[in-house]
Specification:
The complex is a heterodimer of chains A (554) and B (204). Chain A contains 19 helices and 6 strands. Chain A has 554 residues and is mainly alpha-helical. Chain A has a domain of 179 residues. In chain A, the strands form 3 sheets. A two-stranded antiparallel ribbon of chain A has the order 1-2. In chain A, strands 3-4 form a two-stranded antiparallel sheet. Chain B has 2 domains: 39 residues; 132 residues, no CATH class. The radius of gyration of chain B is 24 Å and the shape is elongated. In chain B, strand 1 and strand 2 form a beta hairpin. Chain B is mostly helical. In chain B, helix 5 crosses helix 6. The longest helix of chain B is centred in the N-terminal third of the chain and has 39 residues. The chains are: A mainly alpha (554), B mainly alpha (204). The interface between A and B is large, with 128 and 103 residues.
């Protein structure tokens, strides 16, 4: 069905669109995170909310702001979900159960958007619109703020651990970036066919005398920020495979573009913030390289269609929409797992074994290719520090990155960051497959069953949110386990990143010396890509062998 | 203790920000999109509903379905959609794929069975049945079938309505959408719109 020419043409259109938009947005973002001036509307909101946007926060205060804001967000969304039955526009749905409300609150506040529930039969319009959509904005804003704090920390000289102001970063991100872009994107989507109304499900009498419920809702407004903020939580159970969320091949491309736009632009902005655009270019090149490889592999896997069921059917179309076919499904799949979005336009559980393995590997990379709107940049910068450290060990010099010495304290923070998600993934998966309540949720047995559990825990711990949907996760066991993975997988790394930003901000920025490893050359791009792959490879190869690799070989 | 107090203070600031964000992002923003949608794209924003003559409508009472949602076709004389895993089939209250893995024995058996049944129904060799005809879509609401699956069904539909095969084949090609800009997505045929056109042509 799919043929190679259009598949490549589709990728080319995407690359051109990004090549035009990323530098423009990147330049704008660097201005947003460094300008001392406030917009009038921002000044008014700071006054109304009694915030001091000019207080240059120590990293600890910054971190407490992040945690405090996220804490009330979780509590607020939990209460919202529990009380749904008593609120307007609930479509008659009862409040969420305690474990489900906890899971969903953590899921949306951590920018994961793992969904144990089916949107159209569990969550009313008000919670979707005023609870989940709001977190889609602000959780993305929190991630971008933390990335900006790290970039500023690197750019500063002897600033005593101060990294900027969280509230100003958050408000600016929403007011100047996310809201205007989401508005434009939502209007584009609605003109192309995505629904936007507040109707209850309407019964229609079908052509041959049946009845069908047409399920409306404020979809376009949620869809736009869901992709733009790399959130990924679908309005409907089928997510972006649903024709009301993603009606045409063009909306599909728009959604892929939206997912990739900010993560790449943040890398561009980073170069400008640290005063050396080539540094941003190197980070962006690594992101693009890793994403390019995964797009190629995933597209090959789904178009070739290895495996028994695709062989019998004549193509890997189970779980895919005709309007997208193998190529556009694979492109979306690579983009959604390479970023931390986790929206799906086809069912990853039904991907071919190598295709599902690539999607999983993308997430295991720690969401850096190009990753979440903010987490992608700070994740990649952590790996850059690991890279200069390893290179320093090889030549026997004190490693430095952008003029900042990587001493013992710094490398401890980095090591803890790198270890956090693998510990969560491996301990979490081990817990799931040794507990009977964990196994009870799996649809498949054997290697594919292990893949379902591994995919879920990987997705939660890396704040992705996509799923091998055969897993029935709406049980107290899975809701609790995945909730903990999402929470720790989001905030432990964030605090470590901010601590590192503080260390950098306190340091003097040294001029490059004769022994400094240049971090903008192709050599560094290759080294950093290698480090990303090796760190992940060594951590996850055993469990990948037991899951997707065994399945591919059988 | 000092940190705990600081966390509390930051949380209170966070609460104020959250309330403001809920109003602006959770009410005003979707409201603005709603307003623009109602003016710029009223038909699409209401779900792309069509009547029995294929006309656009925003009134579900007069509609036979949505151009974007596949539906069960309980008439052997019309074009059949793909298999669906959404509820009992094409149920928008339960949109989803089967999520069967590529080696799942139930999926393999189902594909073989569908292939055999369709081959008998259309009077063709099982090897000629295209993949989309025997697999469930991701949403369970796929409005489209591949041009190959539509072509396969032409003789049966023509026979059932007493139409010339060429006339039905022309309808299929009129309702086939190519790739956008020649590269995006895949060629496809909208089943509901095609079936409406068949009924109009047959005068029934």
């Amino acid at each position: 069905m799919s043929s190679l020419g259009p598949a490549l043409g589709q990728i080319a259109v995407l690359v051109i669109a990004l090549a035009v938009a990323v530098p423009v947005l990147g330049r704008y973002l660097s201005h947003v995170y460094t300008s001392p001036r406030h917009l009038a509307v921002e000044r008014a909101s700071y006054r109304a909310l009694r915030l001091d946007p000019d207080a240059d926060q120590h990293w600890k205060t910054y971190a407490l702001s992040v945690l405090g804001f996220s804490l009330v967000s979780i509590l607020g969304l939990y209460a919202f979900g529990r009380l749904q039955g008593h609120l307007p526009l609930s479509l008659g749905f009862a409040g969420l159960p305690a474990d489900g409300a906890w899971n969903t609150a953590v899921s949306f506040v951590t920018n994961t958007n793992w969904q144990w529930y089916s949107g159209e039969s569990t969550v009313g319009h008000l919670v979707q619109m005023s609870g989940l959509t709001v977190q889609n904005f602000v959780s993305a804003g929190v991630g971008m703020a933390v990335a900006a704090a790290l970039a500023r920390g690197l750019a500063r000289n002897l600033q005593d651990g101060r990294v900027g102001n969280f509230w100003a970063d958050l408000v600016r991100t929403v007011v100047r970036v996310l809201l205007p872009l989401a508005l434009v994107a939502a209007v584009v989507l609605v003109v192309l066919g995505v629904v936007q109304n507040l109707l209850e499900p309407q019964a229609v009498h079908t052509l041959t005398g049946g009845t069908q419920a047409v399920t409306g809702g404020p979809v376009a407004s949620q869809e736009a920020i869901k992709e733009l903020g790399t959130n990924g939580g679908g309005f409907y159970n089928a997510n972006s495979a649903h024709p009301f969320e993603n009606p045409t091949p063009l909306t599909n491309l728009v959604e892929i573009f939206l997912m990739l736009l900010i993560p790449f632009a943040m890398a561009w902005a980073f170069g400008r913030i640290v005063g050396d655009r080539r540094q941003g270019g190197a980070v962006l090149a690594v992101m693009a390289l890793l994403l390019g490889v995964s797009i190629a592999l995933l597209t090959w896997a789904e178009m070739a269609g290895p495996g028994t069921a695709p062989g019998v059917a004549g193509g890997a179309m189970e779980g895919k929409e005709v309007r997208f076919g193998a190529a556009a499904s694979a492109l979306f799949g690579a983009a959604t797992t390479g970023t931390s979005t986790g929206a799906v336009n086809s069912m990853h559980d039904s991907f071919t074994a190598p295709g599902g393995g690539v999607a999983m590997f993308n997430m295991m990379l720690g969401e850096v290719a190009p990753g979440g709107v903010g987490s992608g940049l700070y994740g990649m910068l952590i790996l850059a520090v690991v890279t200069v450290f390893l290179a320093g060990l090889m030549v026997g010099r004190t490693p430095e990155y952008l003029g900042k010495k990587i001493g013992q304290r710094e490398i401890v923070l980095v090591a803890l960051y790198v270890l956090t998600t693998p510990v969560l993934v491996l301990v979490g998966t081990a817990t799931a497959i040794t507990a009977s309540q964990g196994l009870a949720g799996l649809q498949e047995s054997g290697p594919h069953g292990l893949s379902e559990a591994l995919y879920a825990v990987t997705s939660a711990s890396n704040n992705n949110g996509s799923a091998f949907g055969g897993l029935s996760s709406g049980t107290p066991f899975w809701d609790t386990l995945l909730g903990l993975c999402m929470l720790l997988g989001r905030f432990v790394p964030m605090v470590l990143v901010l601590a590192l930003a503080g260390r950098f901000s306190a340091q003097r920025r040294l001029p490059p010396g004769a022994g400094t490893l240049p971090t903008h050359r192709p050599l560094f791009v290759a080294l950093l890509s290698g480090v990303a792959l090796v760190v992940v490879g060594l951590t996850y190869v055993p469990v990948l062998v037991l899951g997707p690799i065994v399945e591919s070989l059988s | 203790m000092k940190d705990l107090y600081a966390l509390l203070r930051q949380s209170l600031a966070g609460l104020r920000v959250l309330i403001a964000a809920t109003l602006v992002l959770g009410v005003v923003y979707p409201g603005v999109v709603y307003g623009v949608a109602a003016v710029a794209a009223p038909w699409r924003s209401h779900g792309s509903l069509v009547t029995g003559t294929g006309a656009h409508t925003t009134d579900a009472g007069t509609a036979v379905g949505s151009a974007l949602l596949g539906q069960l076709v309980d008439d052997e004389g019309l074009f059949q959609p793909r298999p669906s895993a959404a509820g009992a089939g094409y149920d928008p209250l339960d949109s989803y794929g089967s999520n069967y893995g590529p080696e799942d024995p139930d999926l393999i058996a189902a594909i073989k069975q569908r292939k055999a049944e369709i081959a008998v129904r259309e009077g063709v060799d099982p090897a000629d049945v295209p993949p989309d005809a025997v697999t469930a879509s991701g949403s369970g609401l796929d409005p489209d079938i591949s041009p190959a699956y539509a072509a396969l069904q032409v003789p049966r539909v023509a026979r059932a309505h007493g139409l010339a095969e060429d006339a039905v084949r022309r309808l299929v090609s009129e309702h086939t959408s190519g790739r956008t800009w020649g590269v995006l997505g895949e060629p496809r045929v909208n089943v509901l719109e095609l079936n409406l056109a068949v009924r109009v042509l047959a005068g029934s």
